[in-house]
Amino acid sequence: MAVRRTDYILKRILFAVMTVFVAITINFVLFRMMPGDAISNLSRVPHATPALRAELAKEFGLDKPMWQQYLIYLQQLVHLNMGVSWVEQQGQPVWQLLRNRLANTIPMAALGTSVAIVIGIASGVVSAWRRNSAADYVSTNVAIAFYAFPTQWLALMVLIIFAGVLPSYGMHDVFSMQMGRWQSYLDAFKHMLLPSLTFALTLFGEYTLIVRSSMLETLGEDYVLTARAKGLSSWGVVRGHATRNAMLPTTTLIALSLGYIVAGAILIEAVFSWPGIGMLTYSAVIHQDYPVLQGCFLVLTMSVIFFNLLADLLYVKLDPRINE
Amino acid sequence: MNPVSVEPGVVPDLDRPRRRGGLLWDVVRKRKAAAVGAGMILVFLILAVFAPVLAPYGPRTQVGPVYGSPSSSHWLGLDDGGIDMVSLLFYGARVSMIVGAAAGLVATFIGGIIGITAGYAGGRTDGVLMRITDYFLVIPDLVLMIVIASIWGPALSHIILVIGILLWTGTARIIRSQVKSVRERAYVKRARSLGAGHFRIVFRHVLPQIAPLLIANVVLTVAIAIFDETALAFLGLSDPTAISWGSIIEHGFIRQAVTAGAWWAIVPPGICVALLIMGCYLLGQAIEDALNPRLKVAHLSIKTFRLRSLAGKGPEVS
Fold it and tell me: Would the CB atoms of A163 and B278 count as touching at under 8 Å?
C-alpha cells in the first residue's frame, strides 16, 4: 500500500519535471523559429556590414550549432540568467524583473481567488441543495454568464462602475508623497481591491458549477440516503455528509484552476495597470520585448505546473482510495 | 439487446435504422436548453451573414461626433471614430464567428485525428500520443497562444492557427476514450475478421459512432476559440484592420472610452460574446447530455467546457 502511494507521488513529480523540461524546450524552439534573422533583429542596424554581423553572431554564440546553443541556454537558465530586457529600464536583468513583479501579483491574485472560492462554494452548495428551485436557477445561470464574459471586458465593467469610488490605476497613489509605511500598505491595498474583485468575478462562476455538480453527485450516494433515513435534517445531511465528500473533487479542481489564473492576470493587470507579472507580459507583447516575454512564459508555465503537482499531491492526501 | 451497445457516450444501436443527423435534430427538438442555444447561435449567424443588408451604416464610415451618445438614429451610440456601434457589432460578428469556427474546426480536426489514432491503435502509439497530450494540457493555452501570436505577428490567419493548434487536447482525450470502447464492439471485430482494412473500419464503423460527440465538441471548442480571440485581440495580437468583437473592446480600452464615459463603446461587444458563448455552451452541453446521461450529474460534465481556468486537467477521469 505505502509503496503504491510513494510510487504515485514519484510518478507525478517526474511528470512535473518532464513538463517543465518540455516548456523550456518550447520556449527555446519558438524563439529560434522567429521570422527574420536573429542578428538583424538584434543589431537593429539595417545595413550592417557582413563583418559586423559575423562579429555579433560570434559574440552571442549564434554561429554555434543549434544543439550547442540549446545546451548553453539550459546552462544559463539554471543560473537564472534569462538575458536583459530590451525595453524596461534599459537592460534590467529579466530574472530581477520577474521576481519583483511576481511579488506584486501574488497577493492580488490570492485575495481575488479566496473571495471567488468562498462565493463559489456557498452558491454551489445552495444550488445543489435546492436543485431545480428558483435559487438554483438563478445562481447557475449567473455562474454561466460570468463564466462566459471575457475577462478583460469584466475588468472594464468594474472600472466603469467603481472608477470614482476606488483607485483604479497602478499600485500607489502618484500624488501622495511621504507616506508612512502603514499608509503605504493601506494605499496599495486600496489599489488592489478592484483587480482582485475582477479576479473573483471571473472565477466564481466556474467554482459554483464545479461545487454544484460534485455536490449533486454526492447527494445521490447511498450514505446520504442512510443519513436521511436516520432522520437527519435536510441541511444536516448537506452540511455533515454531502458537502464534506463533495469537497474532495472540488479541492483538486480549484487547486488546478489556480495555475490558470496566470492567463487572467495578464488581461486584468493590463486593464488596471497593476504592476505584476501579467502587466509585464502585456508590455512585453506591446513592445516586442522578447527576452521578457520568454521569461514571463517560463514563470507563468512553471506556476501552472507547480499548482498541478500540488493538486496531485493534495489528492493523495485527501483521498485514501488512491491506494487501491 | 447486446449489453455492449449501451455504453455511455456512444449512440445506441437502435432496432430501426436512423439518419445520422437524426440524433442532433432530436436533441434540439426535445431539449429546451438546446433549442435556446441553437436559436442564439442562429440569430448571430443571421446578423453576421446579412451584416451588409442589416447594418444601418457602414463599418468604416463616420456618421457623427467622437463617442456620440446613444440616440434614436444610433441606438448604441458612436465609437471613437464616430462610427455607428450597431453596425460595428454586426460586422464584428463576422470576424469573431469566422475565427471561432475556423479555429474550432482546426482544433477538433487535430484532436480528432490524435484521439482516433491513439484510441484505435492502442499500445505504444496510444501511450506516446497521450503523454504528449498530457504535457500540452498542463501548459497554459492562452499564455502559449500569446507568445506564439506575438512571434508570428498580427494577422487573422495566425490567430486562427494559434488557437486551433492549442485547443485540441480536450477533444483528443474524449475522442480517444470513446474510440477505445467502440473498437471493442462486436460489429467492429466482425468487420475486422471479415478482412476490412484499418481505414475502412475507422471511416465506416468508428467515425459515424463518434460523430455526434465530435459535433458537440466542435460547438464547445468554437465557444472557447471566440473567447480566446477576444483576449488575443485585446493584447493587440489580431489583425489591426479587422473588426471583431474582441477588437472593438480593445479599441474602447486603448482609446479611453472609459474616461470619456462612453460605456456604449465597450458594454455591447462583451454581451454579444457572452451570449454567443452561452448559446454554444447550452447546445454543446445538451448534445453531450443526450449522448451520455451519466455526465449530467457527474462532475465530468464540467471538464468538457473550460474557458479560463480550466480545471479538470488533473487525475485521469475517463
Answer: no
